[in-house]
Amino acid sequence: MANAPFVLTIAGGGSTYTPGIVKSLMVRLNDFPLAEIRLYDIDTHRQNTIAPVVEKVICEHSQTIRFVVTNEAKTAFSGTHFVFAQIRVGQYKMREQDEKIPLRHGVIGQETCGLGGLAYGLRTIMPMVELIDLVERYADNAWIVNYSNPASIVAEGIRRLRPQARVLNICDMPVAAMRNMAAILGVDRHDITVDYFGLNHFGWFTKIWVNGKDHLPELRRHIAQHGLLTADAAQTDPQHADPSWVKTWRNIKPIMDHFPDYVPNPYLQYYLMPNHIVERQNPDYTRANEVMDGREKKLFKAAAEFKRTGILPDAFHVGVHGAFIVDVACSLAFDLRQRHLVITENRGAIANLPYDAMVEIPAYITAQGPEPVRIGNVPLFHQALLAQQLASEQLLVEAALEGSYEKVLQAFTLNRTVPTMQQAKAILDEMIEANQGYWPTLNQACHQGEAI
Ligand code: NAD
Ligand code: G6P
Ligand code: MN
């Protein structure tokens, strides 16, 4: 790793998160000095719309940082030191399909969970591997810190196809939950240390340490009333304050009413109470629509206003999303060995899950990557849920590598959000149509089973 100041490339430069991440980088320039920021995207128009906003954010904080906007891999990655990846393969148009197709069959339709997540995974594995190859072709030893979803499937795909790559897969959900916990406990987010185990978007907080004392009992009392919703949600976290997220934070309550030992990752609502969610979901207006009408529109409006007036509306905040990726990059860059929740190969950390599972656990982030914390055995209930989800995701990755229709069907059928194999098949067949040009070709078995 070269000495600071660094060159950093954001892959998925046209993302709605880019201005927030760059703002986060700007307020942390003393910790993470930058010589150059490059935006890289395959959608030139989208990236060019957002780039002036990003440039303005940079100019407000620094006169020395070079700013480059490109759709060419060589320009983007030559000599870069860090890549923040946040690509959305198929963009919101395909997210909408991931959410709406399963819902038409009475099954959870979600960006990263259930069949929507598996569909997104089938689109994303190969483009992520191509991205890694491009970075490795043009840069020496760069770290790729990856937010691109679905993070657990992406992580498993990379483990299978590019096991030596310098990629660290991360998720902001546990940090967002910790931010809420801190607000409830009246402490700073950075003063909380958690014990946690699971897969991405499928795990549990088992201890909430503040100054050596476990505050889970105190949190339980708040959760029994409000879930993990905080009074100041809208101020502390505009992203996770939309109506659908408010419901999500509240749904921690029913889960803990039944299973009070641990605080679940909010995404467990989709696996533990799918009927409740589906019944209350408008199948014609899902989260993709909410995001297009909300975050995306706000960003495009700000970009248009800036173009017209030269004044940038104060539309971007430094949330946990931007703060967390900068924290992780600092720890990688300067061998800080800070403890963060990241996605990493199990290698025995959770003793009763497979050695090669990509798990989400606390780890000390060194210049060579994560050094995971040993968890030991997890209880049978959680182990069984995890094993089922892991198998579903691993089968999906195998299906992508082998082009196997049957394995995708197995992955779909095994997913806890899906009641029957017939529903799995009907959804799969609709998804194949919708994902033409994105999914690998799936070789269909010739036998077509019909229920008698
Ligand atoms: P977005 O559609 O606004 O941005 C994604 C960008 O990626 C688009 O501009 C698109 O053109 C670009 N892109 C697609 N394929 C590409 C490729 N092969 N190479 C380069 N660029 C490519 O989406 P968004 O809502 O801003 O989210 C961005 C990503 O971040 C998504 O994958 C989302 O799921 C993920 N995300 C993850 C976390 C987490 O916790 N891990 C948190 C938030 C967002
Ligand atoms: C959380 C999750 C991300 C997910 C995002 C979706 O932050 O950790 O993995 O992509 O929520 O948010 P959105 O606002 O796009 O629905
Ligand atoms: Mn996430």
TrEMBL record:
GO terms for molecular function: hydrolase activity, hydrolyzing O-glycosyl compounds; metal ion binding; oxidoreductase activity, acting on the CH-OH group of donors, NAD or NADP as acceptor. Keywords: Cobalt, Glycosidase, Hydrolase, Iron, Manganese, Metal-binding, NAD, Nickel. Pfam families: Glyco_hydro_4, Glyco_hydro_4C. InterPro entries: Glyco_hydro_4, Glyco_hydro_4_C, Lactate_DH/Glyco_Ohase_4_C, NAD(P)-bd_dom_sf. The keyword NAD applies. It is an enzyme of class 3 (hydrolase). Transmembrane segments: none annotated. Substrate binds at residues 95, 149, 287. The keyword Acetylation does not apply. It comes from the Bacteria. GO terms for biological process: carbohydrate metabolic process. Its EC number is 3.2.1.-. Gene3D superfamilies: Lactate dehydrogenase/glycoside hydrolase, family 4, C-terminal, NAD(P)-binding Rossmann-like Domain. This is 6-phospho-alpha-glucosidase. The lineage of its organism: Bacteria, Pseudomonadati, Pseudomonadota, Gammaproteobacteria, Enterobacterales. The gene is pagL.
